[in-house]
Amino acid sequence: MRLYVTPASPWVRRVRVTILELGLEDRFEFVQTRWPHSWGTRTVTTLAPDFTAATPVARIPALVADGITLTDSHAICDYLNAELGGYRLLPREGAARWQALATMAIANGIIEAQIARRAELLRTGPDRSDDFIAKMRDRQMRCHAALEAQHLPSFGDAFDLAQITTAVACGYDDWRYGPDWRDAAPRLAAWYDSVAGRPSLESTKPAETPQR
Ligand SMILES: N[C@@H](CCC(=O)N[C@@H](CS)C(=O)NCC(=O)O)C(=O)O
Known about the structure:
Elements: E1 2-5, H1 10-21, E2 29-32, H2 49-54, E3 62-65, E4 68-70, H3 73-84, H4 95-122, H5 130-151, H6 161-177, H7 180-184, H8 186-195, H9 199-202
Parallel strand pairs: 1-2
Antiparallel strand pairs: 1-3, 3-4
Helix pairs in contact: 1-3, 1-6, 4-5, 4-6
Bound molecules: glutathione.
Glutathione binds at residues 9, 11, 39, 44, 58-61, 72-74, 115.
């Protein structure tokens, strides 16, 4: 199976952490993609032909698996968990499934805001919107605070998909935007520090995307 990646992407990271937590890394070829800084606001015309042939969405992660191509981290994590992971990271049904999805929806909301903010920050010239950047930052802080108040208390011992996605959101904020989120959610930050040393997180720490 082929997974298109870059180390800067939190969406890619949640898939890579899921693969590592399930012990499946030997089954994947990881293909590094290259992006110019204008990726956030302009069509990228320099992507490799095998990547654009695999995904008309032209975003990462994209998984080319046995007979199927999945072009979104949610679908890929679902596939890994259900088809290859025996539902070890997200239950197939029941209250625990919905609780995990509720947590993940907020963590995903953080990651969406992080990436939208990044795209806007990469925009050059007078069109860049400080209002939009501030709106995304507010969303990040609000969601971190909500995770701490409403979701952290029910985190169990298992490092499941909800915790993976939450940890990836926390890690991206630390890396890209600094410690602001830690002031908004200090107990969530303490939880994150307690899991950040897991090999799956240590070996997928964010790093800048190669350009071109
Ligand atoms: N909902 C998608 C989002 C994927 C996404 O936005 N990936 C970004 C990298 S973090 C990307 O490839 N952006 C390139 C672009 O938008 O042109 C997922 O969960 O996989």
